[in-house]
Amino acid sequence: MPAPTDQPTHLRLDRPSPGVAVLTLDNPDQRNAMSDEMTASWVAAIDELAADRSVRVVVVTGAGTAFCSGGNTSWIASEPDASVDHLRTRMIAFYRAWLSIRRLEVPTIAAVNGPAIGAGLCLALACDVRYAAAGARLGAPFVKLGMHAGMAGTYLLPNVVGEAHARDLLLTGRLVDADEALRLGLVSRVIEPASFLEEVLVTAEGIAATAPIASRLTKLALADGGHADFESCLQWEAMAQPITLATEDLQEGIRAAQQKRPPVFLGR
């Protein structure tokens, strides 16, 4: 990433296998709080991944025992006389920086290896899929800190778990463990910590092996809760499916099925 080597970036970008990129929040001493250095590195990394057509799936996880403890709010407490306009300008830039992951066209996975709190939970919610390690805790305790939710929490949380569960979590500010998060639909799987990242990467490799044009169009179809109505769905699929039927990948998929071998999709 384009950052001076003698300065902390608080973020790692790795490519463990073809098509798979892993973004690791790397500020473990602060439980991966979103520092200014991490935020700047995050924006640069998302720009890099968005421009790289070889990337087929992105995994986000945390270093150490936490996924992300949220925004670094010490600057808010240090500016008690700051104007609303000043704070609003700063916060919306922070939101847009971290939510930029939503503009990636490839599937994104939040590998919640430990606590995902506040803005950290919102980052996980901004991903397409969430897996949690057993023992992880998740929550949006904004009201317990005397503040309104931020980083699209009042949009993303209802979108993922439904309005009733979102009201419960946002109005009480309570944290849930991984098993309750699974019951609520906040995460899709709970995995034992010893094999957590390994199993997530196996899933990511499986996604990376699918046809990338079909994958991107499917992600677009499911964005923001999916289609507005049944007819909109039919109209979209009547366009999107023929796009994939006209690809070389479709022919490769059929040949591979007939020959009982894994397909090799080239994205064309």
Helix content: 40-55%
Tell me the strand percentage band.
5-15%
Shape: globular
Largest sheet: 6 strands, mixed
Q: What sequence of helices (H) and strands (E) makes up the elements?
A: EEHEHHEEHEEHHEHEHHHH
Structural class of the secondary structure composition?
alpha/beta
Radius of gyration: 20 Å
In angstroms, what separates the terminal alpha carbons? Answer: 28 Å
**Spans with pLDDT under 50 lasting ≥5 residues?**
1-5
Distinct helical segment count: 11
Which strand order spans the largest sheet, edge to edge or round the barrel? 1-2-3-4-6-9
Summed over residues and divided by their number, the pLDDT gives a mean of 93
The overall strand count is: 9
Structural overview:
The structure is a single chain. The protein is an alpha/beta fold. Helices cover 45% and strands 15% of the residues. The protein has eleven helices and nine strands. The chain has helices spanning 36-50, 74-77, 84-98, 119-126, 153-161, 163-172, 178-184, 196-208, 212-222, 230-245, 248-259, and strands at 11-17, 20-25, 57-62, 108-112, 116-117, 129-133, 137-139, 175-177, 189-191. It has a six-stranded mixed beta sheet, sandwiched between helices. Strands 5-7-8 form a three-stranded mixed beta sheet. Helix 1 (36-50) links the parallel strand 2 (20-25) and strand 3. Helix 4 (119-126) crosses helix 5 (153-161), helix 5 packs across helix 6 (163-172) and helix 9 runs antiparallel to helix 10 (230-245). The longest helix has 16 residues, at 230-245. The two termini are 28 Å apart.
